[in-house]
Design a protein that fits this description.
- This protein is of the alpha/beta class.
- The chain has a domain of 77 residues.
- It has 9 helices and 10 strands.
- Helix 3 crosses helix 4 and helix 4 crosses helix 5.
- Bound molecules: adenosine-5'-triphosphate (ATP) and magnesium ion.
- Magnesium ion binds next to helix 1.
Length: 243
């Protein structure tokens, strides 16, 4: 079953077409990786799906409903959550208060007490329970990335969009987050994951698609995609390809 699909998605900034006629889908229970060089249009696509940026053309459907350019909070309430590449915490609030906000504005109409319990549960899930009472501004960048993830998870999404949650993490932290991503899927959610850490993309994705200069250029199984000449050419230049 397809949970998310985009068709003809296009976004133009002034003279620059950041996303150009992109078609893609995510099936229930699937982890789809989205890769591409800097400036390929990945974050813009995530912004279009989550309602942060209006689509100039094209349609986004989530669980069969047209959600194109709906307000972000309405999309979140429907069960589609996201993280931000540049983390967006409420820095003066504690780790738990940040995650509480996710629980309060998510898919369930939680009362405060239930939302607090949910926030605590999610913080245990991502391994941040011992930092619950600290201000977000005082925890490490790696922990702020986890807060970002926890805040999205607290909304109880059925589909999660991750924008470079592993950037800046060390090898052990990356493995921790990979395990968390697999556990999120095991709990029933589907995931669309933008990531530059190829080890993670290959390790967790069922399918990968590649963007370059706003277009989707290749799609398939992770190992096949990374070995594709067109993909090697956009990352390294055509002199590195086999043919
Ligand atoms: N709000 C904006 N106004 C103008 N141009 C923008 C805006 N947002 C993105 N762009 C441009 O659109 C293109 C795609 O940017 P985007 O951030 O989507 O790339 P990306 O694939 O996420 O890159 P990265 O891997 O570096 O995060 C870039 O050329 C970028 O400069
Ligand atoms: Mg980006």
């Amino acid at each position: 079953m397809v949970v998310l699909e985009g068709e003809g998605l296009t976004k133009v900034f002034g003279g620059l077409t950041a996303v150009s006629d992109v078609r893609f889908n995510v099936h229930a229970g699937e982890i789809v990786g989205l890769i591409g060089p800097n400036g390929a249009g990945k974050t813009t696509l995530i912004n279009m799906i989550s309602g942060l940026c209006r689509c100039d053309r094209g349609t986004v459907r989530f669980r069969g409903r047209d959600i194109t350019s709906l307000r972000p909070y309405r999309i979140a309430r429907m069960g589609l959550a996201r993280t931000f590449q540049i983390v967006r915490p409420f820095p003066r609030l504690t780790v738990r208060e940040n995650v509480l906000i996710g629980a309060l504005y998510g898919t369930r109409a939680y009362r405060t007490r239930e939302a607090l319990a949910r926030a605590t549960e999610v913080l245990e899930f991502v391994g941040l329970a011992d930092k619950m009472g600290q201000r977000v501004a005082d925890v490490t960048q790696a922990d702020q990335k986890r807060v970002e993830l926890a805040k999205a998870l607290a909304t109880e999404p059925t589909l999660l969009l991750l924008d470079e949650v592993m950037a800046g993490l060390n090898a052990k932290e990356i493995e921790d987050v990979m395990r968390i991503v697999l556990r999120i899927r095991a709990a029933g959610a589907s995931i669309l994951m933008v990531e530059h850490v190829m080890k993670a993309i290959v390790g967790v994705s069922d399918r990968v698609f590649v963007m370059h200069q706003g277009r989707k250029i290749v799609e398939g199984r992770p190992a096949e995609v990374l070995a594709d000449d067109r993909v090697i050419a956009v990352y390294l230049g055509s002199r590195f390809t086999k043919r």
